[in-house]
Amino acid sequence: MTRILKSICALTLSLIAATAAFAHGPTPQRADETIAIAAPPAKVWEALKNFGDVSWHPGITKAEATGGNDTGASRTITLATGNLVEGLDEYSDEEMTYGYRLSTENLEAFPVSFYSGKITVTAAGDGSEVTWISRFYRADTGNFPPEHLNDAAAVKAMTEFMQQGLNGLKAKVEGQG
């Protein structure tokens, strides 16, 4: 009897472990993009430094902001697919950087349920380097998301959005946009 009970317990524990392994939900994703710009850091920062002004990003058709560059400021950006609301978490004019996060998700506009980002301008040789890092979760946080809302879709969308923005910034600052 004891041997049967031990076998049942071992089987039960195995099933619990297997279930937990498949029911972990989404994992954080990451996108890091960098671009070199042939302009001094101060000129690049001038184009970026106003949290509410994202006119350098060709994928953003409109932006409305409140709060300036103070922590807690908010902006609503309009993409071709809809609006996203973002909040400013940190800002340093001296270090030429700011960090922000998604405040209100819109899965139809962008296939992520949450993101945070940080943009930094640094000197690089005779010009500048802009680094944009983002951490995010896919749109469907369930265990079996559809293809258009899974990790790969989120990574693709975020990477393309960041690359488009950095290329737009480069064109604007270098006088090509």
From TrEMBL:
Keywords linked to the UniProt accession: Signal
Signal peptide: 1-23
CDD domains associated with the record: PYR_PYL_RCAR_like
Keyword field contains Signal: yes
InterPro entries attached to this UniProt entry: Polyketide_cyclase/dehydratase (IPR019587), START-like_dom_sf (IPR023393)
Pfam families: Polyketide_cyc2
Protein name as annotated: MxaD protein
Species this protein is from: Hyphomicrobium nitrativorans NL23
